[in-house]
Write a structure and sequence with these properties.
α1 packs antiparallel against α2. The protein is mainly alpha-helical and about 110 residues long. The protein is about 80% helix and about 0% strand.
Length: about 110
């Protein structure tokens, strides 16, 4: 079950995100994707008030970028949905770096599709 408080949601998100990053660093991309998806689901099922919290939105955008990159390495068809979610999160945070990351990933997808 997904935690409901902001503190619990952030903690669960950070743990799953960190495990995913460690999996990437040791080359275990399948487990990395699994943990990144768990982190994403902790946000997806959190109450609306928590999902609107700016730090959560920024973290979600970063996670989506990592997940999109990971999925593109494996050629998954889920990439369109991930990039759509990343686009929505990027619009909410108005961060030029996030926008640049999104454009790079979208361009990379166009080249490799």
């Amino acid at each position: 079950s997904c935690p409901l408080s902001l503190k619990d949601t952030e903690m669960y998100f950070k743990v799953q995100y960190s495990i995913g990053k460690q999996c990437v660093s040791v080359g275990n991309l399948q487990d990395a994707e699994k943990h990144f998806q768990k982190a994403l689901h902790s946000i997806d099922y959190a109450p609306k008030g928590i999902r609107k919290h700016l730090d959560i939105i920024k973290s979600t955008a970063q996670l989506l970028f990592k997940l999109a990159n990971l999925i593109m390495r494996g050629g998954s068809t889920e990439i369109g949905d991930i990039l759509h979610k990343a686009r929505r999160a990027t619009k909410k945070i108005c961060d030029p770096c996030a926008e640049a990351n999104l454009k790079i990933l979208e361009g990379f997808r166009k080249i490799h599709v």
